[in-house]
Structures are given as structure tokens and as C-alpha cells.
Amino acid sequence: MEPDLFTAAAEDRQEKDPAASPLAVRMRPRTLDEVVGQAHLLKPGSPLRRLVGEGGGGPAGPSSVILWGPPGIGKTTLAHVVSRATNKRFVELSAITAGVKEVRAVIDGARRASGGYGKETVLFLDEIHRFSKAQQDSLLPAVENRWVTLVAATTENPYFSIISPLLSRSLLLTLQALTDDDLRGLIQRALTDERGLDGAVTLHEDAEAHLLRIAGGDARRALTALEAGAGSAIAKGEAEISLETLEGAVDRAAVKYDRDGDQHYDVASALIKSIRGSDVDATLHYLARMIEAGEDPRFIARRLMISASEDVGLADPTALQTAVAGAQAVALIGFPEARIILSQVAVALALAPKSNAAYLAIDAALADVRAGLAGPVPAHLRDSHYKGAQKLGHGQGYAYPHDVPGGIAAQQYAPDSVHGKRYYEPTRYGAEARYADVVERVRERLRGERPPGSKDPAP
């Protein structure tokens, strides 16, 4: 059976009985102009504009679009807007539950609708990165022949999670996280719009600041909390949603970062800098403030993972493992118990030896690549397994390190343009001191280099 369609009839029912739908559903954008954020994708003549038929008769919109971005920023919403604006059939699948059978059913239905009724189909495929290579391959004929307009969403890097043939036939659009200003505009619209609260209540400035903090960049979360606060205020006969009323409605106490209510990033920065400075007590203070202020625990866990590599690095190679394990546990458990896990990770990072050598190394390498210092891969390192490679000289002269005493083959690995560059400069802190000794011995063996400042042996 073909998957259920998102039909106009369902929206009509919502419009006729708004009270039956959550505020987040009622405020779902109907046009691209109502979409919050993503201004870089909504300029006149942009691919999304052309996809919905705007652009004054210019080139047709793309037949396949991949939306890449974090959760809760409107990927599904954009797909619904495309369907509504173009009056196309809309079929929604999730790669978590669907397989090749369901995809083929949609494609067959799209071909019948296109041939028999002249009705084009938009296929929205959520979590496409969860599809296997074979499942993604099944989409290629439909995209190639424009049997469907594919709008796929992913939270993972598509260059690693989506097959090259599909990626090359698609337009990749990167969605950006919603800012506080984006959410503030959405909240004000929901307060006054007839589809929303229609002016029934107003929102106090302190309550708005708290609402933005607990939303964590998620539009649905912001509207859900706003609806709870409005319901509580109306029940008490109040015309304004106060901070106290909102706190009671969402059952979360407000912790002011500062009097201006704009210290979200300042406190996050202070947490990381306290870890970097090895002040475990300050680290726990800022962590507690973030938890009490209603920060998303996943946001905190992400910051800790970054710090584990940026500030600790190879001075304690287990730091990243600890941070990643903590993030996974936080995602599975959630608050209130997640506070214990976050505390363990933060304390471990604060007390670990510190090194930013890996961080500096990749930035130095990236700077050279961006400056054009890429160059061809040396011929002896190129792939020699395909037919005709040996005729091109690929792989000839390659020394297999496992056949060499010590396991280090003295040969050139980097392109000529960066041969001899030293990107990684390890510190002598913690476990990285061992790496510092190793890297110098390896460089001397590979390139004949001696450590900086060392003297040649006496004759």
C-alpha cells in the first residue's frame, strides 16, 4: 500500500478547528515568506524559490534537493511548504521505517499520477542518511527521470552518508541553526496572528528571555512552551505571561545569566574557558548555571566534546572517549540524571593535562590547502588496483611499511607542494610527551630531519 499522503484536507480541518491543533502546528508556515530563518536560502531566484514556481519563468527548479542541518530548524516544514506552494502530491517517508519496497511503491504511484492525472509528486524522505547504499540506489531512476521531486533531509554530513550518484544529481542546501532573533520574531507572530494566540495575551520581557533560553534554537519547543504559558495565564485571568507564570507552566526555574538576558553564549564560553584553565570549581559553577537555566543537555555535551579535542587533545587521549560516551549517555537518559554524567565529563576535562596541538595542526594544514598547496598525490601512493593503473605508473616504487624493519618506510608521502611541512607540533604535557618523542623519530626516519635545535654528532 502506498504511504499516507499529507493532504490539503487535513490542513483544512486544522484551520476550521484551530483549538484542536497545537500552536506549533497552527503556526506552520504556508509560504516561503513565512519561514523563520534560512534567509540565505530564500533570496529571490534561489533554488527553493524556483522549486515552488517563483522566479519569473527562469530555469526550472532542481529535481532533487537535500536539506542538511541540525534537528528542529525546519527541514520538514520546508518540504511541506514546497508541496503546498506547488499543489503537488506530497508523500512523506522516514528512512527509519521505510525500505526499498516503500520507495518503489511511491515511485510507481508517482508515475501513475503523472501519466493519468498530470499531477506531480513531492517525495519527502526524512533521515536519508539511515538508508543503505542499495536503498539510496533505488531512488536514482526517479530522480534522473523527474518522476518525483525528491526533498531529502539529513542531520549528518551528506558527503559521508549519501552515495555520490545521488549527491551529484541533487542540490545540497545547508540549513543554519535558528538564532534568538529568529525565534523572537516567531514568538511575536504567534502572539498576534489569528492562527496563533490572536492577541489573547502578551509576553513580559523577562519571560521572553527565559523562553528563548529553554527553546535552545528549536522553534517547536519555543511554541510549545509559549502555548503552555499562555494557557496558564488565561486560566489565572492574566493578560500578560509573566516570568513566574511561564516558569510554573513549563516547570523550570529561570536562572538569569545576567540582567540583559543575553549571557547564553557568555556562560557557555566561561564553562569552556574554565575547563581550559583547569579550574574545576568554576567549571562546575557554570555547568550548574547552564543546567538550571534550561540549556539543552545535548548542547552542553556537544561543547564538552569539542573541548576534549580542542583543549585536551593527545595530552589525555581518553578525554574524547569520555566526552563522547557522556554525550551518548545524556541522549539516552536526559535530565535530571544527565546532570551527573555532564558533571563527570566536565570534571575529567578540567583536571586533564592540556594540549591544543591537534587543533593548531589541522588549522595549519587547512590554511595551506585553501591557499592552493594541494598538488597531485605522488604516483607511488596512487591506487593501483583498477585495470590500467599500472600502465599509468600508479603504485610503482611503493615501499610496503610492514616489510621494513621498524615498520617505517623512508619514502615521500605528502605532495611536493607541502613536502617537509610540520603541522603537528606536540607539547610535552601529559601523554602527549610520548607522541612528541615518537613524531621526531619518525620524521627523522622518513625525511632525514633532525629535531629543531638538535646538533649533529661529533665527527
In terms of DSSP E residues, the strand content is 5-15%
Overall domain count: 4
Q: Quote the CATH topology of the largest domain.
A: Rossmann fold
Helix-strand pattern: HHHEHEHEHHEHHEHEHHEHHHHHHHH
Biggest β-sheet description: 5 strands, parallel
The first-to-last residue Cα distance is: 85 Å
Give the mean pLDDT.
80
User: Architecture of the largest domain, CATH level 2?
Assistant: 3-Layer(aba) Sandwich
| Main structural class | alpha/beta
How many β-strand runs?
7
CATH class of the largest domain: Alpha Beta
**Rounded Rg:** 28 Å
Explain how this protein is built.
This protein has 459 residues and is an alpha/beta fold. It folds into four domains: 8-174, Rossmann fold (3-Layer(aba) Sandwich); 180-250, Helicase, Ruva Protein, domain 3 (Orthogonal Bundle); 264-351, Zinc Finger, Delta Prime, domain 3; 376-447, post-AAA+ oligomerization domain-like. The chain contains 20 helices and seven strands. The protein has helices spanning 8-16, 23-26, 47-51, 75-86, 100-116, 133-137, 140-144, 158-161, 164-168, 180-192, 205-215, 219-235, 243-250, 264-276, 280-292, 297-312, 318-333, 338-351, 357-370, 432-447; strands at 64-68, 89-94, 121-126, 149-154, 171-174, 202-203, 240-241. The strands form two sheets. A five-stranded parallel beta sheet has the order 2-3-4-1-5, sandwiched between helices. Strands 6-7 form a two-stranded parallel ribbon. Strand 2 (89-94), helix 5 and strand 3 form a beta-alpha-beta unit. The N and C termini lie far apart (85 Å). This is Replication-associated recombination protein A. Residues 1-21 are annotated as: Disordered. Keywords: ATP-binding, Nucleotide-binding. Belongs to the AAA ATPase family. RarA/MGS1/WRNIP1 subfamily.
